[in-house]
From TrEMBL:
InterPro entries: Flavoprotein-like_sf (IPR029039), FMN_Rdtase-like_dom (IPR005025), NAD(P)H-dep_reductase (IPR050712)
Name this polypeptide is given: FMN-dependent NADPH-azoreductase
Gene3D superfamilies, sorted: 3.40.50.360
Ranges of residues in domain NADPH-dependent FMN reductase-like: 1-140
């Protein structure tokens, strides 16, 4: 199973990336680090995208599933993540997100765990044709949510993360079985 993990944060000490590293302990996944290299979406270059976009699309296309962890900036998803999703959604109805199993998690220093950004991210993914798993994870108070080893302190959050990863794997395995 090839699960590609995408952090919506560019920050080196990102809580979203920390959450994805925690998820890596539950399943084999590859953390994609190319978000900062993606230029602004420009429909004029849709048919001949920049190299960084082509590389991103190829990596997403190879993945059986995506696990995206997003912070919340001004009540929604970060612009750079939305930009990458716009590139992934093209060409229209043929983008690499069509029928792709995706799980969404959010991490925020607020009491709400990036709940709003997750809602917006789910909407964008669904419009792009992705198959978004029902379960999600909100990790509030990110500054204290992880222990010194980078693991979630809250056992309920650990259980939810494991169940979400299991649901993502099951959806991806069902999709693979249909494609064979």
């Amino acid at each position: 199973m090839n699960i590609l993990a995408i952090s919506g944060s560019l920050r080196a000490g990102s809580h979203s990336t920390r959450l994805l590293r925690t998820a890596a302990g539950l399943t084999d996944l590859h953390l994609w680090n190319g978000l900062a290299t993606i230029p602004p979406f420009n429909e004029d270059h849709e048919d001949e995208p920049p190299q960084a976009v082509s590389a991103m699309r190829a990596e997403v296309a190879r993945a059986d599933a995506l696990l995206i962890a997003t912070p919340e900036y001004n009540g929604t998803i970060p612009g750079q993540l939305k930009n990458a999703l716009d590139w992934m959604s093209r060409p229209y109805l043929e983008g690499v997100l069509v029928d792709k199993p995706v799980a969404v998690a959010g991490v925020s220093p607020s009491d709400y765990g990036a709940e709003w950004s997750q809602r917006d991210l789910r909407k964008v993914l669904e419009v792009c044709g992705a198959r978004v798993v029902g379960r999600s994870l909100c990790v509030p108070r990110a500054d204290t949510a992880f222990d010194e080893n980078g693991q979630l302190r809250d056992p309920a959050a650990q259980t939810t993360l494991a169940a979400m990863v299991d649901e993502l794997r099951a959806l991806a395995e069902a999709r693979k079985a249909v494609l064979v």
